[in-house]
Design goal:
The chain is of the alpha+beta class and 695 residues long. It has 20 helices and 29 strands. About 2% of the residues have low confidence.
């Protein structure tokens, strides 16, 4: 028996020794193979790994408003995800906690109610275990604080291995002001040419070389325990670009354009506000009717730099050239117009506001097609192609380089010296047979307002970062497009469009600010022919008329109800913008209630209502207003539902509604003149109340 055990033990030891020898031999062989036989192959692989170069992406620069406010920046966002196939995922505990999780989500993330959150959280459980998601998003794009808050909800506060919860993060490009000037600011994404993130439209694209920065270089370095990434050349972060956009003015322009587009039920509209002296684009808005019913108007393609037939706003350019070229020396000269004018055998030209005769100074005021044609053809009728050359000589056909991506140049054909050319010239001079981007038309009106100096419109004010902080100088397309005296004559003619007895925009007269400008109407082309039932309406001008500070152009496309004229649509937008700027003291007018007798004095203010009703008296006493004041009616007290905040300023309204547990959205500026849902409406905590403000 002992011999049998001894034999078994020796056999086992022998087997073990044999296995050790085999393994040792294998190790010895691999050692010799790696260090001697196959050394070249492994050295090549090592060198390949060590020579691998990785690109370090730079941090993209911010886009800033004129006051330094951030219009576009980088923000790290978080997405909590659940791995439903995690080995230790506790499904039983998850099912038991779903109702509690849904209730918590509904309170802190009210974009869904509790029932909708429950359905969202239960959805993965309806599939077989083997097909369940390993990365199911609980909610996307939340902040770091919100992701930490979510981890305190029922079930999620357990250890990660039992919940399968993981939080992913990524850098995203965000616009703190939402849709404000969205098309002009632009967006980023992967391009066809490059998998890196670059600008795809707007300023993000036009200034991508500045915003993107310069990538860095990392290489592999062998250390004692591992091969690690080593930054060889650090990335150069993108520059911050300061734009000329003024947040207050942008808000005014967008709101006023939106109001009129909704009122007249137009297809789209565009408005650009520019500072006369510098060419700084202070606000730009492109709104289009949303294809989704009930969504109203949304930011759309940047039509400010796309070409359209402008209509009669071009008459201003034609008249300016006529004055400069000496075609007209006396603006009081009377021109016979009649009912129609069949120039060069073409289709008779007519006027919608026709009279038998008028002085030259009234051609713009009355918007006379016949008068404009008769003036321009005096010189250019014998050589129509010279009109194109004249426009080119003033710089009107050159690239603007505004900083807006997608900018097009005007399409104005060089005409042949024959009958066809003469007929085409007779149409070009009052706005047809051309395609001119609104920004180009605005640039000429701005030059007239600027005493003839042709300043270049711009959207970029300066750059900062990487040790650089610079302001870009004001530049000029041409030093002048006309003389100071002719610019003064043009300003007088454009003022008469609003303030003259026969002006086509008399409805735009304002007691607050004098406006000068020109209406323009162009029929829209469909299937190669003019559709006489669809119009594109324009108004371009400047204000205050005698000392212009801002110029502005507005286009409204295909209004279908309430208002269908150029003055009542586009002109009304410009008028409302001018009055809103005046009411905020942005036209060099005083907004100081304690102005001295020699200064411009604003009327005593209307006080907003307040939660603390004694506040109005304290303000009146502090400002020395005496009893000359008006106070908006204080909101009625509500015992349940949505509190009444009508008449309150935004700060008080936010305080009242947020204390009641509601989220708030608002439009406009000033005091609350309307709220949805109405006061007293039963509404769950966490839902949204929308306020309408006005001044």
């Amino acid at each position: 028996m002992k011999k049998e055990n001894r034999r078994n033990i020796l056999f086992r030891y022998g087997f073990i020794v044999l296995m050790i020898l085999i393994v040792s031999a294998r190790i010895t062989y691999k050692l010799i193979d790696n260090t001697i036989i196959s050394a070249d192959k492994w050295n090549e692989k090592a060198m390949k790994e060590l020579s691998r170069i990785d690109t370090i992406p730079p941090v993209r620069g911010n886009i800033l408003a004129s006051d330094g406010s951030i219009l576009a920046t980088n923000l790290r966002i978080y997405t909590p995800r659940i791995d439903f196939r995690c080995p230790k995922f506790d499904e039983k505990a998850y099912r038991a906690a779903i109702d509690s999780i849904a209730d918590s989500m509904a309170v802190y993330f009210p974009q869904r109610n509790a029932k909708q959150w429950r359905e969202h959280l239960e959805k993965p459980l309806a599939t077989p275990d083997s097909a369940r998601s390993r990365s199911y998003p609980v909610i996307k794009g939340i902040s770091h604080e919100e992701s930490r808050l979510l981890c305190t909800f029922p079930f999620f506060k357990r250890k990660r291995r039992y919940t399968g919860l993981k939080v992913e993060s990524e850098l995203a490009r965000v616009r703190p002001y939402g849709a404000m000037a969205r098309r002009s600011i632009g967006a980023v994404g992967m391009t066809k040419e490059n998998s890196c993130i670059h600008g795809i439209y707007g300023l993000e694209k036009a200034l991508d070389s500045l915003l993107y920065g310069k990538p860095g270089v990392a290489k592999k370095v062998p250390l004692t325990k591992a091969i690690v990434n080593w930054t060889d050349i650090p990335p150069l972060n993108g520059y911050n670009v300061r734009t000329t956009i003024d947040i207050k003015m942008q808000d005014i322009v967008e709101n006023e354009l939106n109001k009129v587009l909704e009122y007249c039920n137009a297809d789209w509209g565009v408005a650009v506000l520019m500072e006369v002296a510098s060419g700084d684009i202070k606000a730009i808005s492109n709104l289009e009717k949303s294809p989704i019913p009930g969504q109203g108007f949304i930011e759309s393609m940047n039509r400010a730099v796309l070409g359209y037939e402008p209509g009669s706003v071009v008459k201003t350019i034609s008249m300016m050239i006529a004055l400069e070229d000496g075609i007209v020396n006396n603006i009081n000269e009377v021109i016979t117009t009649g009912k129609s004018f069949a120039y060069a055998g073409g289709k008779p030209i007519t006027d919608s506001h026709g009279v038998g005769a008028m002085p030259v100074r009234e051609v713009i005021e009355r918007s006379s097609n016949i008068g404009m044609t008769k003036i321009i053809t005096r010189k250019y009728g014998a050589n129509p192609g010279a009109f194109y050359s004249r426009l080119k000589s003033i710089g009107f056909l050159e690239p603007m380089h505004t900083g807006i991506a997608g900018e097009l140049r005007p399409r104005i054909d060089s005409l042949p010296n024959n009958t066809t050319g003469r007929i085409a010239l007779s149409r070009q001079c009052y706005g047809y047979a051309t395609e001119i981007p609104p920004i180009y038309t605005l640039s000429i009106y701005n030059a007239i307002a600027n005493g003839g100096r042709y300043v270049r419109p711009r959207l970029m004010y300066g750059i900062e970062g990487n040790g650089i902080d610079t302001i870009l100088p004001v530049t000029y397309i041409r030093d002048r497009v006309c003389s100071e005296s002719n610019a003064a004559k043009m300003r007088s003619m454009l003022k008469s469009v609003v303030w003259g007895d026969h002006g086509t925009a008399r409805r735009l007269r304002s007691e607050k600010v004098e406006i000068a400008g020109k209406t323009g109407t162009a029929y829209m082309i469909e299937n190669g022919r003019y559709n006489l039932s669809k119009k594109r309406l324009a108004f371009c001008g400047f204000f205050p008329a005698d000392k212009p500070k801002y110029s502005c152009i507005v286009l409204t496309s295909n209004p279908k109800e309430n208002a269908r004229g150029a003055a009542s649509t586009s002109g009304e937008v410009l008028k409302n913008i001018a009055e809103s700027l005046f009411s905020r003291g942005l036209l060099d007018n005083s907004s100081d209630y304690k102005a001295s007798p020699g200064e411009q004095r604003a009327p005593h203010p209307t006080m907003y209502a307040a939660i603390d009703r004694s506040r109005n008296g304290k303000i009146m006493q502090h400002l020395g207003l005496g009893n000359s004041k008006a106070v908006l009616a204080h909101p009625a007290k509500t015992t349940s539902g949505v509190p009444d905040v009508t008449g309150l300023g935004l700060r008080d309204a936010l305080c009242s509604l947020e204390n009641a547990g509601y989220n708030v959205q608002f439009h406009g500026a000033g005091y609350v003149c309307g709220q949805k849902p109405a006061p007293g409406t039963p509404l769950k905590r966490g839902q949204t109340v929308t306020l309408t403000l006005r001044e």
